[in-house]
Write a structure and sequence with these properties.
seven-stranded antiparallel sheet; alpha+beta; elongated; 11 helices
Length: 476
């Protein structure tokens, strides 16, 4: 038995040794010629007056101004000065296209590319021009005119990267020149701040200056662009983020063709379907993206309605809002797609011709519905005190004219409604996916939900014009 255990331990050590290459030198030699250092120069306007050396009005102010004058500051640093910054990038074609981060070259007046020293690459730095940028994914595409074909690397399939796979990061950390660090994929599908985020987390050391550099897999393919680190002190602590290559490659393709990104636009406001929302709508499970508003645009023209749940888009299942945003954004502008929605207990298929995503935020249209009937004006409801939205309240709450519904007057802080974020001043425009114009409408929706055996009632709530759905438990 002891001999068997020893054999197993030896075998495990052999397998581990085989899984990890003896040296990363062959891979580094293969890919390093395509990695570049990027130096940017920005002209910054000078500031006049003493620069914080002494307080204004101090008796020493004249002395320090004279001191600055003698040191060539021309009366107080009022001349423009040049500021330099460093970053990394990598060549993706022999004719000189280079990928980096947008924040590396943003606002730069001059961009200079330094190539890895070696045969077949330019010995001197070359100026670069910006082909296009995408702040949403922090990607920029540059171009240099080189005297010879450049060595380059290609994008790999980031979707095949697994947690635990070996990766290497290359770049110019802290201005120290070309440098390599190794680690593993620590996590996948990280989201930092943007709608299109799909970051690979790695413990390969990434520091300032590595931004824009490539993250390679063991085949020498680029699976990520090193973008950010999580650190309390500005240095690497083993939590770095690289934008996934499957996102980057699509962006680069559009920047190369159009000089800008052209993302598909559906024209809806959406939120995730929670388990209680799914139950309130009679769905078997929580999935899809719940439409909260349909302003003028492609979805409205196709007949989509607030309260629809988007289950499938262009043949792709929709798990949540994030997956829908990314799928729509990656779809060609002008393409007509099939969108399957869940509506009133059954599915419907809509054909939507996508527009181009606009940066400007669209205002939600009025909920509409005629004059508010003069009936019961206040009701206690599931921890809420609600009242009819009249002209006076519309003015006080800055609610668009023509919007009808019930305004929340107060919220019991021990209730589920408070836990779900409902507050005084919110306006309920729909209940049970039907418009409200008075207290009797709300009472009718409550009775209908209970008769149907529903445990929750779905409300469409607006705050400062922004809509969202909230499901409240009827048993509370």
């Amino acid at each position: 038995m002891l001999a068997l255990i020893s054999s197993i331990m030896v075998l495990a050590q052999v397998l581990m040794a085989q899984a990890r290459p003896e040296s990363l030198a062959p891979l580094a030699e293969k890919v390093s010629p395509a990695v570049v250092n990027i130096t940017t120069t920005t002209v910054i306007e000078g500031r006049s007056g003493p620069q914080g050396i002494v307080p204004e009005g101090s008796p020493f102010e004249d002395f320090f101004r004279e001191f600055q004058d003698r040191n060539g500051s021309n009366g107080g640093n009022d001349r423009p000065r040049r500021s330099s910054a460093l970053g990394s990038g990598f060549v993706i074609s022999e004719d000189g296209y280079i990928v980096t981060n947008n924040h590396v070259i943003e606002s730069a007046d001059e961009i200079e590319i330094e190539f890895f020293p070696g045969d077949g690459q330019p010995a001197q730095p070359l100026p670069a021009k910006v082909v296009g940028t995408d702040p949403n994914t922090d990607i920029a595409l540059l171009k240099v005119d080189a005297p010879m074909p450049l060595k380059f690397v290609t994008f790999g399939d980031s979707d095949t990267a697994r947690v635990g796979d070996w990766v290497i990061a290359m770049g110019n950390p802290l201005g120290q020149g070309f440098s390599l660090s190794a680690g593993i994929v620590s996590a996948r599908n990280r989201e930092l701040s943007g709608s299109y985020d799909d970051y690979i987390q790695t413990d390969a050391a990434i520091n300032r200056g590595n931004s824009g550099g490539p993250l390679f897999n063991m085949d020498g393919s680029v699976v990520g662009v090193n973008t950010a680190i999580l650190s309390p002190n500005g240095g690497s602590i083993g939590i770095g983020f690289s934008m996934a290559s499957n996102v980057v490659s699509k962006v680069v393709k559009q920047l190369k063709e159009f000089g800008e990104t052209r993302r598909g636009w559906l024209g809806v406001r959406i939120q995730d379907v929670t388990s209680d929302v799914a139950e309130a709508m009679g769905m078997d499970k929580a999935k899809g993206a719940l439409v909260t508003d349909v302003p003028e645009g492609p979805a409205q023209e196709a007949g989509m309605l607030a309260g629809d749940v988007i289950l499938s888009f262009d043949g792709n299942d929709v798990e949540d809002t994030r997956s829908l945003v990314r799928t729509v954004g990656n779809t060609e502008v002008g393409k007509t797609v099939r969108v399957i929605v869940y509506r009133e207990g059954k599915t419907e298929t809509l054909k939507v011709t996508l527009g181009r995503r606009e940066d400007a935020e669209r205002k939600a249209g009025p909920a509409g519905g005629g004059d508010t009937p003069q009936e019961q004006t206040e009701k206690q409801f599931l921890g809420l005190s609600v009242g009819v939205l009249n002209d006076q309240l519309r003015g006080e709450l800055n609610v668009p004219e023509g919007t009808n519904g019930l305004v929340i007057l107060s919220v019991d802080e021990t209730s589920e409604a408070w836990e779900k974020g409902l507050r005084a001043g919110d306006v309920i425009t729909e209940a049970g996916q039907q418009k409200l114009s008075g207290i009797s409408d709300l009472e009718a929706r409550i009775d209908e939900a209970k008769e149907a055996g529903r445990k929750s009632l779905l409300l469409l709530v607006r705050r400062n014009g922004e809509p969202r759905f909230v499901a409240l438990n009827l048993a509370e």
